[in-house]
Structures are given as C-alpha cells and as structure tokens.
C-alpha cells in the first residue's frame, strides 16, 4: 500500500533553534497537510498545501509542497517550549485517499 | 476543534465486553472518520463515512463496527472480537473526502 516516510522520528533541540522535518513517498500526492498533536489531544491542522512548489507560512512555521509532488517539508523557526509535541504529515492521493506519516516527536529544552 | 465532540475522554473495557465511543459534530460536514493511534505510532484508519447511512471499512476494521444514522453522529463500537483494543481513538470530519480533516480530542480506551 501507500506509505509516507516521515523523518526524523524524534528531535531534541534547544529553545531558539530552527527545526526542519520532511515527508517523502514514492507516490504522487494532490494535497499535503501538516498537523501538530499535543499529548492526550487530537491533531490540530497547521498548514495545508495544494499545489506543487507551493510555499506557505503560518507564523513561525513554513511548509512546502515538493516540486515532484512526492514530498513536503515543514520548518519551525526560533523554537519555543510550546512547540513540543508530535508533528504529522498527511498526504491526499487518488483525489480522496488520505494517509498519515508516522510522526516526528519534538522536544524543546530551555 | 470545538465543533467535534468525542466522549468519553477515558473508557475502560472488561474482557468480552462491547463498548461504544461517541463522536458528534456541529460543523455540518459530510465525511466522518475513525482513527486508531497506538503509543509512538501514526494514525490508522478504522472506518469512514462519506454520507448518512453509508460507511466503508478502513485499513483495520476487524473487531470494530460503526453506524451513521444521522449526519452529526458517527459512533464506533469496539467489540469483544477486537483482542487488542487499548489505544487512543480519534474521530475526524471533513467537508468532503479530499479536503482537510479536523479532529476531535480523542478517547483513551484501556482494558481492565
């Protein structure tokens, strides 16, 4: 079946550092979504990308839809303690099928 | 998301028991989904419904059942046939299958 490879699995960084994570696949996607999940809560949508090459920002977060349509990147600038959580990518393929990456666990130290 | 309510937040199941997780939405969205999340894992699709009175199996439907009698409601029953039910269960909704998902706050199910 379809698979999304999300990396890194986990990151331990110091407050103020920039963070970068990505999702890759051998398949082509129509939409890329990035979510953040706090412990014991549901994922919250951060950014949605709809076109190849699209670059979208949401505050300190910036995400890009890869030009090949097979990957996407999420960057967080100047990390703060509340950035802690699990970040998931999700991709839509075949117009209506959605799959999730396995998540990147982010830990921020003061 | 305030428009999606999952209850209860915590649920305990005895062996051989069926339990039902509730998901209600007031967003007037057509599509609803149930996902299972195991510790340190991603989300796996259990069932989804694109319209009232219709639903489809996801990747891990065995041991689960659903109904969609009303647009606002999509309850999930974890049956006794599900041998490893301990997990975090997430309900999600979207305007249509190809649009972004919005999630409820989840139900943690544990086995006594």
Report on this model:
With 110 residues, chain A is an all-beta fold. Chain A contains no helices and 11 strands. Chain A has strands at residues 5-7, 10-14, 19-24, 31-37, 44-49, 55-58, 61-65, 71-76, 85-93, 97-100, 104-109. In chain B, strands 2, 4, 5, 6, 9, 10 and 11 form a 7-stranded mixed β-sheet that branches. In chain B, 0% of the residues lie in helices and 50% in strands. Chain B has 112 residues and is mostly beta strands. Chains A and B meet through β4, β5, β9 and β10 of A and β9 and β10 of B.
Q: What distinguishing features does this structure have?
A:
heterodimer; A: 110 residues; mainly beta; 6-stranded mixed sheet; 5-stranded antiparallel sheet; 0% helix; 55% strand; globular; B: 112 residues; 7-stranded mixed sheet; 4-stranded antiparallel sheet
How are the elements arranged and paired?
The complex is a heterodimer of chains A (110) and B (112).
Chain A: E1 5-7, E2 10-14, E3 19-24, E4 31-37, E5 44-49, E6 55-58, E7 61-65, E8 71-76, E9 85-93, E10 97-100, E11 104-109
Parallel strand pairs in A: 2-11
Antiparallel strand pairs in A: 1-3, 3-8, 4-5, 4-9, 6-7, 7-8, 9-10, 9-11
Chain B: E1 4-7, E2 10-13, E3 19-25, E4 31-37, E5 43-51, E6 54-57, E7 64-66, E8 76-78, E9 87-94, E10 102-103, E11 107-111
Parallel strand pairs in B: 2-11
Antiparallel strand pairs in B: 1-3, 3-8, 4-5, 4-9, 5-6, 7-8, 9-10, 9-11
Number of helices of chain A: 0
Helix content of chain A: under 10%
Gross morphology of chain A is globular
Low-confidence stretches of chain B: none
Rounded to the nearest angstrom, the radius of gyration of chain A is: 13 Å
Main beta-sheet strand count, sense and barrel state of chain B: 7 strands, mixed
Extended strand count of chain A: 11
The overall pLDDT of chain A, averaged over residues, is: 94
At a glance:
The complex is a heterodimer of chains A (110) and B (112). Chain A has strands at 5-7, 10-14, 19-24, 31-37, 44-49, 55-58, 61-65, 71-76, 85-93, 97-100, 104-109. Chain A is an all-beta fold.
